[in-house]
């Protein structure tokens, strides 16, 4: 049996479900047996759900969502987990992006993956630690196409730190192509790209890059990490990320001046 201490919710969606099932149960003051009674199952079944040795089924997730008024969170998580057969968060995130009506993101260091050209993405991936760079590139380009090439594209807003425009990735030609792509994307009616300039100083965005995706009537947040990112669906966690997003929005340059900054960065690459 997997020990609870061995669960890794940053890597596996099923582990995330297990950890949060126990968290919500304890938060509502229920023993394992009390929850088992409400689910009409054995206490050992609840224990196996919470250790991720048994996957939480939809019929029990529906009862839990109703019991704790989670607005369908556990049912939604199971949907992600079923899409990601190997438990990888990125697969679940990509499915959510595909259905998104709105995507908001903040990027601290590099052009975000959804806005990368193929050449820029390849250069960024090659300097990393991917075991299969070409497969990683294929997945990234597929995510981009799923967001921007669908009949009704998502409303997309990106806040970019000034370092994104100055950090060289690949050759000068690669950077020029990437900046030209950002300018072209910023001119689309569904896309807004704004830049946080150097003089903004220290601000909450320096804590790290993040993304907020709205799909199926609910929000999800994705926090980037050095190895693997982390998805947040808890309303309290989402509120914290939304506040950070608003604070970055307060200091970002408007759309027009931001486009001028992109054009200025392009000129410096010529």
From TrEMBL:
Residues 21-51 form the HTH cro/C1-type domain. Gene3D superfamilies: lambda repressor-like DNA-binding domains (1.10.260.40). PROSITE patterns: HTH_CROC1. InterPro entries: Cro/C1-type_HTH, DUF5753, Lambda_DNA-bd_dom_sf. Pfam families: DUF5753, HTH_31. Signal peptide: none annotated. SMART domains: HTH_XRE. This is HTH cro/C1-type domain-containing protein. It comes from Actinomadura vinacea. The lineage of its organism: Bacteria, Bacillati, Actinomycetota, Actinomycetes, Streptosporangiales.
């Amino acid at each position: 049996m997997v020990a609870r201490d061995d669960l890794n919710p940053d890597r596996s969606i099923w582990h995330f479900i297990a950890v949060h099932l126990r968290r919500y149960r304890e938060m509502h003051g229920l023993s394992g047996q009390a929850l088992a009674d409400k689910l009409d199952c054995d206490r050992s079944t609840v224990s196996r759900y919470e250790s991720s040795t048994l996957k939480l089924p939809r019929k029990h997730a529906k009862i839990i969502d109703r019991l704790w008024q989670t607005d369908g969170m556990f049912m939604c998580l199971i949907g992600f987990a079923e899409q990601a057969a190997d438990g990888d968060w990125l697969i679940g995130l990509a499915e959510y992006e595909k259905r998104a009506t709105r995507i908001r993101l903040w990027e601290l260091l590099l052009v975000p993956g959804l806005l990368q050209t193929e050449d820029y993405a390849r250069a960024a991936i090659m300097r990393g630690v991917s075991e299969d760079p070409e497969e990683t590139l294929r997945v990234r380009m597929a995510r981009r196409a799923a967001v921007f090439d669908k009949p009704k594209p998502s409303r997309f807003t990106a806040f970019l730190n000034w370092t994104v425009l100055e950090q060289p990735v690949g050759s000068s030609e690669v950077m020029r192509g990437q900046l030209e792509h950002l300018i072209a994307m910023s001119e689309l009616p569904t896309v807004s790209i704004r830049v946080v300039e150097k003089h903004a100083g220290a601000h909450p965005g320096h804590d790290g890059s993040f993304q907020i995706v709205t799909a199926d009537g609910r929000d999800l947040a994705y926090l980037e990490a050095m190895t693997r990112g982390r998805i947040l669906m808890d309303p309290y966690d989402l509120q914290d990320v939304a506040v950070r997003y608003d604070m970055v929005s307060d200091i970002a340059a408007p759309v027009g001046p931001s486009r001028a900054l992109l054009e200025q960065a392009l000129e410096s690459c010529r």
